[in-house]
Amino acid sequence: MVAATMDHVATTPRLPPPHPREDHGTRPHPVQQDLLVGAWAASQDGNGLVIEPWAYPDAEELVEQGWLEQRVEDATGEPCWFWTRRADLALNISDLMHSHEGRDN
User: Fold this and answer.
1) Which domains, and CATH codes, for the chain?
2) Which terminus of the chain has a lower count of CB atoms within 10 Å, N or C?
């Protein structure tokens, strides 16, 4: 896995090889979990992810769900995946719903 901006690419650890897809209900499966954590971490520095082609279907599914946004890295033309504002809002709402301070709903 590689963290990238439109003008900067920095190497990070690679994802493990994919495992056969299991039914995880509404939860993301392990490869998607790795993509989400990596994209969130990269977003803290304004970066996105450049991933191996075998992970594209998982990343595209996360794009459809609103967690990631796909862009093309200008220097290489490679697709990159970036954490979205919608994903930040989803995490903030989840934090509010699970907060033990203040009023319980």
Assistant:
1) 2-14+27-97 (1.10.10)
2) C
Residue 91 tokens read as 């995490």
What's the half-sphere exposure (Cβ side, CA atoms, 13 Å) at 70?
A: 14
Q: What is the pTM of this model?
A: 0.65
Q: Which residue in 91, 22, 80, 35 sits closest to 62, CA to CA? A: 35
Residue, of 46 and 105, whose pLDDT is higher = 46
Sign of the CA dihedral with 85 first, then 88, 94, and 95 last:
negative
- Count of helices and strands (H, E) across the chain: 3, 5
